[in-house]
Amino acid sequence: MELLHMASVVFALVTATVAGAYAVLAWRLFRASPVGTVMLLLAVAMFGSVCYHSSQLVLGEGPVSALIEAGLNTVLFALVLVAVRTDTKLRQLAEGEPRR
Predict the structure, then answer these.
(1) Which residues contact 58 (CB under 8 A, 6 or more apart)?
(2) Backbone φ and ψ of 22, nearest 5°
(3) Separation of alpha carbons 99 and 65, rounded Å
(4) What is the pLDDT of residues 26-61, one digit of tens each?
(5) pLDDT tens per residue, range 75-96
(6) Could you tell me the pTM of the whole model?
(7) Residues 6+ apart with CB under 8 A from 98
(8) Count of CB atoms within 10 A of residue 51's CB?
(9) Distance from the CA of 17 to the CA of which of 49, 55, 67, 96 falls in 20 to 30 A?
(10) Buried-state track 56-82, b at ≥16 Cβ within 10 A, e below 16
């Protein structure tokens, strides 16, 4: 593997670690609010995305990368569902409707 590829993998892992740590700290700040749930899922999705792309660079195509991709797609789908549900709850609270 070329030096540039290895450097990009290291850079991606360091960047993802810092972004993940920031997301977890933000989640701890907003834990009691609906935004906290979305932030936690976003941190998990960022971690999964970096792991997937790093494995693509190192391993190439294969069954392991297909499994990681399927897991990442599942997490991203869950993130979208939770974001939509959170938006619905926030709109209901803003309009004064009772919680369900």
Answers:
(1) 1, 9
(2) -65, -40
(3) 41
(4) 778 887 777 777 777 777 777 777 777 777 777 777
(5) 778 878 887 887 788 788 788 7
(6) 0.54
(7) 92
(8) 16
(9) 67
(10) eeeeeeeeebeebeeebeebbeebeeb
Task: Quote the radius of gyration of the chain (alpha carbons, Å).
Answer: 17
* Alpha helices (runs of H) in 30-98, residue ranges in sequence order: 34-59, 63-95
Please state, in angstroms and rounded to a whole number, the distance separating the CA atoms of residues 26 and 4. Answer: 32
Find out whether 23 and 38 touch, Cβ atoms under 8 Å: no
Domain boundaries, the chain: 3-95
2: DSSP letter? -
